[in-house]
Design goal:
By secondary structure, this protein is an alpha+beta fold. The protein is 19% helix and 34% strand. The strands form 4 sheets. The protein has a 6-stranded mixed β-sheet, sandwiched between helices. Strands 7-8-14-11-10-15 form a 6-stranded antiparallel barrel. The N terminus is likely disordered.
């Protein structure tokens, strides 16, 4: 493992979260293993264990996919079943990778792994081209508003590094993705097994003049991925030290969901609607002049107002939606189908409420991306548009506008199991 810089430099480095998606055997785990190996982010004992496991399996090469396939069932079958998270860094950036399964029945795992991602790396087998799973994963990336999409055409070594094959796949992907909400799409021809265009540029693709995957991941501009216009501060905790030094201190701790607040800004407290002025912004023992997403800070107000967990501070002149009737896209995560006559718990930012499902408007056919208005049964891995009514108002933006205040989870009250992930429309 590279130890070329100190802990302070590491903490100050920018973090990029990305997810991998693709069909079974497209090489997702191998690609991540190659990234870790070529960037020297693997401990020696990990590499030795993978080498032993590769010999035991009879592989011709060191099977780098075993670095992410952690479950015994995954290693035996050579597939990814659960979401595997891996952490590594280069001198330029820190990374968190979510390696998600390729099987249709694990759609919920991709939604979970991709929900916080800055980028999605979608793999396509060069021999098979764009298939249904490719369309499905691109749709989920669009639904989750992932800002950057990197399409890696893998196994180029098995098609002779053909430029025509690569161009045909690129053309097909762009044709169907015009109807999706994909803004920044890049294409890279790679061989994860041999490392072509992953970390080092390949001499076998002289016709490709774009960046390697690692260069792109290190240099993607992600500062604008957060909504920096609409300031939102969900209150998580009321800070009352009750000490002699801070006898009258009352602060509101939380994480900036979006935008920026500065000392002196006039704010509105929801749900009460009362207004005040930001008196100070505190980060541990340091006083700041301003705080931006995704910083975690404590804010004090000039007036004594009734503020508690679940409240939200918003700019006086830049309001947020306040409603009990909410329309959303939901990915169902439970084996137990959605019950329109049951009550569910909802967690939205720091707000906890209960809800009833008023209506299932339609279900998305995940293979054709068409809306099915006839089948209203929502089961495991289904994606649907529903209307809910909550017991208390939610303070939200649309998911496309703000991924933090526009998302929520639905929980089965009886079992406390998360059964749905929702994106507010």
């Amino acid at each position: 493992m590279d130890k070329t810089f100190n802990d302070t430099a590491y903490l100050d480095m920018e973090l990029l979260r990305f997810t991998t998606a693709g069909s079974v055997d497209d090489g997702k785990s191998t690609l991540i293993g190659r990234l870790l190996y070529d960037s020297k982010a693997i401990f020696q004992d990990q590499l030795e264990e993978v080498e032993r496991a590769s010999v035991k399996k009879g592989d011709e090469h060191v099977n780098l996919a075993l670095l992410t396939d952690g479950l015994r069932a995954e290693r035996e079958q050579g597939i990814t079943i659960d979401v595997a998270y891996r952490y590594f860094h280069t001198p330029k950036r820190k990374f968190i990778i979510a390696d998600t399964p390729g099987h249709i029945q694990y759609t919920r795992n991709m939604v979970t792994g991709a929900s916080t991602a800055n980028a999605a790396v979608i793999l396509i087998d060069a021999r098979h081209g764009v298939i249904e799973q490719t369309i499905r994963h691109a749709y989920i990336a669009s639904l989750l508003c992932i800002p950057h999409i990197i399409v890696c055409v893998n196994k180029m070594d098995l098609v002779g590094f053909s430029e025509d094959v690569f161009n045909a796949i690129q053309k097909r992907f762009l044709e169907f993705s015009t109807n999706l909400n994909l803004n920044d799409v890049r294409f890279i021809p790679i061989s994860a097994l041999h490392g072509d265009n992953v970390v080092e540029r390949s001499k076998r693709t002289p016709w490709y003049d774009g960046p390697t995957l690692m260069f792109l991941l290190e240099n993607l501009y992600i500062s604008n991925d957060y909504n920096q216009v609409d300031a939102r501060f969900p209150v998580q905790y009321v800070v009352r030290p009750q000490s002699d030094e801070f006898h009258d201190f009352r602060g509101y701790a939380g994480r900036m969901a979006s935008g920026t607040f500065s000392v002196g800004d006039r704010v509105k407290v929801l749900p009460s609607g009362f207004t005040s002025t930001i008196e100070s912004i505190v980060f541990y023992k340091e006083k700041l002049q301003s705080a931006s997403a995704p910083q975690s800070v404590t804010i004090t107000l000039a007036d004594d107002l009734d503020v508690s967990r679940g409240c939200m501070l918003v700019p006086f002149e830049n309001g947020v939606n306040v409603a009990q009737d909410v329309s959303l896209m939901v990915c169902w995560l439970s084996d137990k189908p959605l019950n329109t006559s049951a009550k569910y718990a909802v967690k939205h930012t720091s707000n906890d409420v209960r809800c009833m499902v008023k209506e299932v408007k339609y279900k998305v056919n995940i293979n054709t991306l068409e809306k099915d208005f006839e089948d209203r049964t929502i089961g495991l891995n289904d994606i649907a548009c529903i209307n809910i009514r909550t017991t208390k108002p939610l303070f939200f933006d649309s998911y496309r506008k703000n991924r933090i205040t526009g998302s929520l989870i639905i929980i089965d009250e009886a079992t406390n199991v998360t059964v749905g992930a929702g994106m507010i429309l």
